[in-house]
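Case study 2.
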Amino acid sequence: MDNIIEISDLTFEYTDNDNSETVLNGLNLSVERGSFTVILGHNGSGKSTLAKLVTGLLKPASGEIMVDGMSTLSEEHENEIHRRVGLVFQNPDNQIVATIVEEDVAFGPENLGIEPAEIRKRVDDALKAVDMYDYREHAPHKLSGGQKQRIAIAGIIAMEPECIVLDEPTAMLDPRGRKEVIDTIYRLNKEKGITILLITHYMEEAENADRIIVMDKGEIVADGAPKEVFADVKTIKSVGLDVPQTTELLYLLKQNGIDAKDGIISISECEKELKRILSEV
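Prediction:
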């Protein structure tokens, strides 16, 4: 297995004066290259801290994070890690720095010292990848939330990372904007082979992932394919999370003595299972 991220015995603490709070405690985790991995967890579970650690913005108190064979503790590899792993924040306004869309997307490659002709190509390719090429000469502040977030993602793509970490990128968006962004992320993974590490609290955004990791109090409490993880409804609910509505419905039916299958997520699968149940009544 070819892993782009390897995390070993990771511990991280936030220190304030004489007080310290352990956010991650002995975490071990690997992320396979080219995979789509979703990390779920309620506020305070440590998932956003993990995103900053993976991208090198924070340094571990102990343990190690290796990105493509390079330690995030190494100053020598710091710039190269930032090239390999891009981070998209929750609020796109925190990432947009220019007054014209294409200039904003060019900002990252310019800082990497890329030649102007190559920057032009990267900007155009990145905007096309997120379906925002027609807006290249627009002012970002006039765009919708979903469009802004896609511009922020384009800015990361233009730096040609192998992995993109997204820290609750749809939290501030309406349902339409959320769909635009999630569709874009899945397309980048499937068509370009970019490794995706998506941090979210929206269950529906995790349904088509290759893998789901559930965190609570700085530790991993569930790890597996979506159907496996969501089938364990009790564990998911015990850490303050919900399961997809389809899974919840069939779970409640089963709790009431009806023989319903576990691990069903999609609406079409749920519909088929409900028809089967009704046919046997």
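The two ends are 47 Å apart (CA to CA).
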